[in-house]
Amino acid sequence: MASASVSPATPDLTEWAIAPEAGVVSRFSEKNHVLVRVPQLMRTPEHAVSQAILQDFAKITPQYPGVRAPLESTVCAAWLTRLAPLLEGWFAMPGTRWEMQAWYSLVTAAPATLLPIQRLPHVDGTDPRQIAMMLYLHRTGHGGTAFFRHRSTELEALTEPDYPRYAAALKADVAQSGLPPAAYVTDGAPHFERVHAVPGTFNSAVFYRGNILHSGVIDNAAPLSADPREGRLTINAFFRPAAD
Fold first, then answer.
1. pLDDT at 8
2. How far apart are CA 174 and CA 19, in angstroms?
3. Model confidence over 80-124: pLDDT tens digits?
4. Closest to 192 in 3D by CA, of 228, 240, 156, 234
């Protein structure tokens, strides 16, 4: 579970109520990936923004081009209670006991400063049982999430057996034609192609398997504020089968 945040008081869970039952299941690409979109996840999304302002954001990993703060553990527990049975149905995983981690996240890195790993689509892990959620809480010129196919291997999702082949092929791609320029991923060229994208509409959420190649849709010409009221604020979460 996510660790406690610096919010000064125990969260009022009535302000964190969600309505995930409105989720719409669809599929994309020739690989038939499951994608679930909830048009209005939170009943009072502005409360989440107001709480984000109180957080102590920090850079947590070198992969994420911005800063994060953990979502309160009591909120995670309440959300997981509502989401667990739906995740089982949406992703055909009956009987699964779930664990959840979640963060407030702000993309803040200027395009020119991006590390090589941040210029390419990525996966959250190679376990297809791990489900990712993105809840968009911004009203900026930036978008949602895009999904990609690696051209030379034709892989769209990575499993543990796939990863060595993918890594070797990507290394060969870069050796032949170089890294993409320092910018956020757009169409994926030259090593990837975009196969699908979802908009980042305020208070909408999407759920997908975290081993699918994906990237945030970031406008390289638009500002990236560190103020949660003005920046590309999201709450992103991972749901994993609980360890035995």
1. 46
2. 44
3. 999 999 999 999 999 999 999 999 999 999 999 999 999 999 999
4. 156
Q: Report the amino acid identity of residue 54.
A: L
Length of the chain: 244
Tokens of 66: 């911005």
Domain ranges in the chain are: 20-241
Three-state helix/strand/coil letters over the chain: CCCCCCCCCCCCHHHHCECHHHCEEEEECCCCEEEEEECCCECCHHHHHHHHCCCCCECCCCCCCEEEEECCHHHHHHHHHHHHHHHHHHCCCCCCCEEEEEEEEEECCCHHHCCHHHHCCECCCCCCCCEEEEEECCCCCCCCEEEEEECCCCCCECCCCCHHHHHHHHHHHHHHHCCCCCCCCCCCCCCEEEEEEECCCCCCEEEEECCECEEECCCCCCCCCCCCCCCEEEEEEEEEECCC
CA dihedral 135, 141, 147, 153 (to 10 degrees): -140
What is the distance of C-alpha 90 from the center of its chain?
A: 17
62: cis peptide before it, omega within 30°? Answer: no
Which phi and psi (to 5°) does residue 211 adopt?
A: -90, 5
Q: Which CATH class is domain 20-241?
A: mainly beta
